[in-house]
Amino acid sequence: MIPSREWPFSSCAPPGARRRCGHLPWPARLDGGGQTALLHLSGPVNRYPDFVRYIVQRLKTLCPAMGKVRIAYTLDRAELHLGATTVGRILKEKRIPDPGDDEDTPGHVVTARHPNHLWHVDLTVIPTSSGFWTPWPPFSLPQQWPFCCWVGVVLDHCSRSVLGSGIFKENPSSAAMQSLLNLTIKREGAKPKYLICEKGKQFWCESFKDWCEKKGILPRFGAVGKKGSIAVIERFIGSLKSECMDVILVPIQERDFRRELTFFSDWYNHHRPHSAHHGQTPAEIHHGMKPVGLRSRLEPRARWPAGASCKTPVSGESGATFRLEVSHYSGRRHLPIVALKRAA
Q1: 318 burial class (0-12, 13-18, 19+ CB within 10 angstroms)?
Q2: 159-169 pLDDT, tens per residue?
Q3: What is the helix (H) or strand (E) element at residue 21, kind and residue range?
Q4: What percent of the chain has pLDDT over 90?
Q5: pLDDT tier for residue 41 given thresholds of 50, 70 and 90
Q6: How far apart are CA 275 and CA 46, in angstroms?
Q7: b/e for 240-257, b at 16 or more Cβ within 10 A?
């Protein structure tokens, strides 16, 4: 038998011997050249193929309430035996793309270069004061008026400005969404080059694609289950719900609901600073206005040098005293307008 000290790459060699040689163990060395390697090692026998991983991730996307244990039991009943730990590990791995997905390719990444270059359109469901009880039968209520309404939103990507919105008593058709977009284009006096939307039945259909072709608009569809594909408009919808609809008694009358939606959209565009724009409002970006925060500033420090360089000029003299005034847009207490008034 040849002593192990004569085989420095052997797995049975002492760790110190392998370090002295400055090489990896021999299996890694032989398989370290990729396709041109001297030896190709087979994968682990217990590794599941990618289509199994896709099935697990797809089931989680379609049924987000399912945990790893429930997914394992569900697949077990469907004759695919997986352990809960295996399911949990697969869910943490990189998402396996859907067959035929084109949205993940780098050539389909679109960047907004100026206002009205790239628009988003999406739908959301908002319960009214008579709305949902529980989301599952037999206690759930129909997803239509008067229990809820469907809200369509058109958003400009560059400025994050709300360009149009519509209210529907039930899940709208593709023709209804096309009508909303036509009104937005007419009101804005411009049309986008690209339009990003999800793969809902209103958009993922020949009628909508034909409308886009007729208007000279290139549609782009967010990938199902892919984080960030329609994040910009989803962020606005989250703000609409958390800053408006969750803090008021949502009206049942369509006219009143539309008024509340219009008030929030106007306040959002003209008075709410946006973090993506470093405190500027969407309207300032969309219309190319000079930011209010750069026009002038109050200086409460009495000893601040008058000639000190600063990007914003001082309004009046240093050492100013002022008070806080908070008004509310159209009397809505959830839509604040903050101002500082110089004290007498």
Answers
A1: middle
A2: 999 999 999 99
A3: helix 15-21
A4: 40
A5: low
A6: 47
A7: beeebbeeeebeeeeeeb
